[in-house]
Amino acid sequence: MNSPALPRLALTAGEPAGVGPELLVRLAATSLAANFVAITDRDLLERAAARCGITIRLIDDDGESADARPQGNLRVRHIPLAAAETPGRPDPHNAQHVLATLTEAAQGCVDGRYAAVVTAPLQKSSINEAGIPFSGHTEFFAAHSHADVVMMLASPELRVALATTHLPLQAVSAAIDAVSLERTLRIVHDELRIKFGFAEPHIAVLGLNPHAGENGHLGREEIDTIIPVLEALRQQGMQLLGPLPADTAFIPAQRKHYDAVLAMYHDQALPVLKSEAFDRTVNLTLGLPFIRTSVDHGTALDLAGSGRADPSSLIAAARMALELVARRHQAAQP
């Protein structure tokens, strides 16, 4: 009996001058059962492997399936750099290279050539310095797919989705309106069912203000926007808690009541998650027509080139991508 084909996971290396290329070769050196395809410059990976003291075998990707991957083997979809990398010093000349890798990964997933994409960290500032407006992976994949998306970070113990992502704090309140909040909650609810297998997801929704506004004394966003949306969606059958004060929402007594949290802004909840499980936390983009996972950290320019970057988060991202692919395949079985 033939073994089933391994899932083809697209890997993007992110910022060439960051730790991403080193993380990719360390991932390839694991025994994870996946047909990894690195979408980046082949020579960049060779140099990264040398810095890490790792022996890898790079194979030009032919698009074919495989039922096994010898440890250290890594298929490559070669997209050349514009300029050779200097570890720790991002070069805006390579911005188009980075965007080309993301485009290939996203389109390859849409076309069915890859089962999922796993992304290493990139340097937003370097792309913007090249004159290309860019706010992050999440927004890029959303625009490419013409999809409404939600950023979620997940560890084995906690899942946190965001109502807003990379916004200045002063812009957050205006960005949370009834339409966007309802859309976000519907995406989170549907993806918890489809991707994570919760038949009836329970979602804790945080208030925007301290003490969830304290009945309007500390802000009216809860009264004017958040509570009406939650009440309307509860009438449609969603299991929603809140709005909860953020300072007590993560205590053990609360956690047992929900499957995921919706936070109103980036730094409201992510410090809790990352302080508990930084090396086991995965960034996911919900709402895309394909599976995308990523590390939960940045380019670590101070470590780039040293060969000492910890691959734990990228390994966790690859593991979660494989779990989601398997669940999707199981759900599709008659």
In short:
The chain has 334 residues and is an alpha/beta fold. It has helices spanning 20-28, 42-52, 95-111, 124-129, 137-145, 172-175, 178-194, 221-235, 252-255, 266-277, 312-332; strands spanning 8-12, 35-40, 57-60, 73-78, 116-119, 150-154, 159-162, 202-206, 239-244, 260-263, 282-286, 291-294.
Can you tell me about this structure?
The protein has 334 residues and is an alpha/beta fold. It has two domains: 1-146 and 290-334, 3-Layer(aba) Sandwich (Isopropylmalate Dehydrogenase), CATH 3.40.718.10; 148-287, Isopropylmalate Dehydrogenase (3-Layer(aba) Sandwich), CATH 3.40.718. The protein contains eleven helices and twelve strands. Strands 3-4-2-1-5-12-11-6-7-10-8-9 form a twelve-stranded mixed sheet, sandwiched between helices. A hairpin with a 4-residue loop joins strand 6 (150-154) and strand 7 (159-162). The chain is globular, with a radius of gyration of 20 Å. The chain starts with 7 loop residues before the first strand and ends with a helix. The model has no long low-confidence stretch (mean pLDDT 94).
Characteristic terms for this protein:
Isopropylmalate Dehydrogenase; 17% strand
